[in-house]
Amino acid sequence: MRNEQVPSAFSLDKVRKLAYSTPQYGYMTAVLPSPATASTRPTLRTALWKVAEAVATPVLPADYLDLIAPLRSGADLRGRVISVVPETLDAASVTIKPGRGWRGHVPGQYIRIGVDVDGVRNWRAYSVTSRADARDGLISITVKAIPGGKVSNHVVRALRPGTLIHLDQATGDFTMTQPAPARALFVTAGSGVTPVMGMLRNHLDELNDAVVVHSAPAEADVIFAGELRELHQSGRVRLVERHTDVDGIVTPESLDELVPDWRFRQTWACGPTAMLDAFEAAWADAGIADRLHTERFRPVVVAEGEGGTVTFLGQGTVVEADGATPILDAGEEAGVLMPSGCRMGICFGCVLPLREGAVRDLRNGELTVATPGDGVRIQTCVSAAAGACEIDL
Ligand code: FES
Fold this sequence. Notes:
Blueprint: H1 41-56, H2 61-68, E1 78-88, E2 91-98, E3 110-117, E4 120-127, E5 139-144, H3 150-157, E6 164-167, E7 184-189, H4 193-203, E8 210-216, H5 225-233, E9 238-243, H6 244-247, H7 252-258, E10 266-270, H8 273-285, E11 292-295, E12 308-313, E13 317-321, H9 327-333, E14 351-361, E15 367-370, E16 377-379, E17 383-392
Parallel strand pairs: 7-8, 7-10, 8-9, 10-11, 12-17
Antiparallel strand pairs: 1-2, 1-6, 2-5, 3-4, 3-6, 12-13, 14-15, 14-16, 14-17
The structure holds FE2/S2 (inorganic) cluster.
FE2/S2 (inorganic) cluster binds next to loops.
């Protein structure tokens, strides 16, 4: 995923948003010629480029090129939205034509997309659901709007064909084993079905015995409902569709009844943190942890402590945060525009200076303490207040 994938009870949206000003996403620069070669062509090109820069200042020639050919080779990777098709009342599939620099994906992986909302670029991550060998070269993602989710709501309700968005290359290791297993099980909930649909669309011919246990609050909330049921009716997979409003959530215990041979299947699970925690514990207890592959959209929190007062300097915002809430979440809940990305401690898109005070790394309990002038920077997505602290923003 992927992502903004912020899990709600039964919806997940992977998340990735990156600081607008990071060098990685800054302006494209001109390709410089190699120094002093026999050919005069690079020198001429350089000279012409410099003239163009001088004429174009303060806007760089690359900016004009971006307007004319934003998907060209050598430009920052972008994509053009081709279509936005509703899947449910609050989910939509977005088809994108990626720029020339796109290197393709492995089914199950996610991409980060950068979308401008209210003049601010936000990065979120979503699983790629299209075929990896699509002839038209288009890729698709499926996004579920979550309550209060700035990007997911924008994508589902306001994104229009023709819009240019920023892209990152695909990444992630929630992918099919090679060769594909003789018996496979996919357990998904909410938008956790998206990476699995990416795998099914690409690997179905390799799977002779696949079971999909998918849950959503109600029938109307089932993403890809038609396609999943069709796969079931044609015998390509066995679909166990659960509506949690009436059936309750899927637990490891309930699998004994739903898929009695689950212990003998390679299993891919994607859903809320609590579900994945329970599954990982059950697979470990059964001594088959190596047969379970999970996709998380949030880091595993192993260390909580006392919270504290977080001051966002320059914003005039002060919040009380408990010891389990990432400073990123605490800031956003208070209306602070925070840089962010994966929200899992991977991309470093959320790094901000800790001017003073202490924070705890939620992944391992490690304390970081800063005094003014230390130049300490922290990942706000995996750090919680450990007493009073001040963040430079
Ligand atoms: S948002 Fe990616 S490391 Fe924090």
